[in-house]
Amino acid sequence: MGIFSGMNSYKSIIVLLGTIMLLSCKNDIKKVNALTDRKTLPEMSGENMEMIYSDSARIKYKAYTPLYNKIHTGEEEYDEFPQGIHVISYDKDGKIVGEVKSKYAKNLIKEKLWEVRNQVVVMNAEGKRLETELLYWDMEKEWIYSDRYSRLIDGNNILESSGGFESDQNLKNPVFKNITDGEVQFEMKPNN
Q1: Which of 3, 46, 52, 56 has its CA at 20 to 30 Å from residue 33's CA atom?
Q2: Does pLDDT of 59 surpass 60?
């Protein structure tokens, strides 16, 4: 009887430890739901894509990206380009008027606003080159702006700003804030 009563005590201890372990394991239901929540998953996704944005059968922009995600939740709808983007802008005659490249981009659909980040480079048809780390592009107003350090290179002229800039999307009339280091040259024409 001594052997069997010892076995029962041993079994009781194992059952008790198992019950304690089972009760001590719990999952945070919010974390579990967040992992399985379909709202945070892309509605559509694609790799190595070319996208065309047009208006009245006229191509306005072409975008190239290694990875595309379309996100649509109850609160917001946006296209995300987590591995970067290259956008080419065309005029009404189909001529290239500008390009934008970056390592990350997000197109907020309802706002018609692009947020472009990380090694942003904007080029216009005349060869002006704008560099910054954050750029907003209002597609409806055809306006770009930033509040971060920005640098504009136009031939031998370099203009730098610690406070950002704003401009039409083709860099025709940029306005820089808090101009820092840089050399600005003005061409003087003689009066006749």
Answers
A1: 46
A2: yes
